[in-house]
Amino acid sequence: MSDHARPRFGQPLTGIISFLVFLALGWGTWFLFADPRGPGKTFPYPFVMYLAVMILVGLWQHMLLGDWPFAKLRQPLKGVVLTVVNFLVTLFVIHVIFYRVLGLGFNFLSQVNLDELARNGQAVLPSGAALSLEKMKAMHLAQSAIVSFVLIGFFTYPVITILFAKWPIRPSNLEQPQAGFAELGWTSLVTLFFFVAFIVPFWGGLFGQTLGTSFGMNSPWWGKINGTAHLHWVFGWWEWSIIALFMTANVWRGKPWNLIRLPQPLKGLVSMLGVFAIGYAMAILCINLIPLWIGSGTIAQLKAAAPGDAEYLRFLWYHAAEIAGFMLIPFLIWHHYFEDRVPMADRDSWAAFAFRTVGVLVAGIVLYVIFYYGNFGRWALGNSHMTNQASRFIHGESLVWNFWWIIPLLWNDWFFAKWGLFQEDKEHA
Q1: How many CB atoms lie within 10 A of CB 397?
Q2: Which of 7, 108, 175, 296 gets the most CB atoms within 10 Å of its CB?
């Protein structure tokens, strides 16, 4: 399908049908692969790890490589082939690149290595006791570390396309796959820079507490900034930065960064700093508002879990990230399947920008209420921990569902070119 496509059922009906289709596909596949009541039963791990790497590989396939080498296949064959390739590359990245290659030097990125250490009695706690194999597997340390790498990559791989206009790879006469692999190398370097600064120290501190071997890695430098040295401080503002980045490419239609009249890479750098500022401001707003509705019982349980309110602060930052996750479906479907519809005549006006921004926030709040107060996470997704009010907030894991829910939408848009829901407009092709 070309770029000239029109909604198959008109608007807003096509958008509404798309929403229901993606909800059904996300919910159905969740039951098959993740739900503890279904056949797969892989929630939360290793499901979370596979989910994260799948989206990252999808970014590489579509945004960097331009669907190479399958760009000229007809739909729906093209989408099917890209989906199969995505799954195979995901397996290769996890079980070979992370576990077997990077694992040669970094045990915290290889679950195979960590399990082997525990199996041989080499995972020794500071107390002198050995960590059992069962305990090591239950902790999912390397699987969680891979997810934290992908968290950084959700931002650093697409930011070069969205804010830097693919600088320094473009403008150039490079064709695919040279252009895509060159960009993959450059963005991987950017990813590594942020990964070392914001992720590795957490694992250094954690391994120092569990295995007494943190001398090879630093411990979290941000502990004195906000009262918690947990990785979830990074999750909180980084996830909101991801939302701001992708809203720029979607419902914001390039605003407000299109006002910056600087050459690349200065324009991209200023825009990126602005996105980080928005992300951190939204996270701070969330952690100040969250206590207003989670209830005194939830707060008391969190504060009793660890000395010095450490668990309470960790929760606030992570829940800020969870709130950000509820914005994913609203802005993605509004842009791709409702075509940025607004009541204003000019979809690119500042009034339309404000309308869609407020609309995304309101829609995200509605989804949040359904998940936590309607207990969607328990009766629909099988999260058995969501019993009383406190457990709903503390063990909801809504971020996992929201990222899984967008998979059908992204795959239909990226890989299938909206096949089935949009059709080619031959009059304007």
Answers
A1: 18
A2: 108
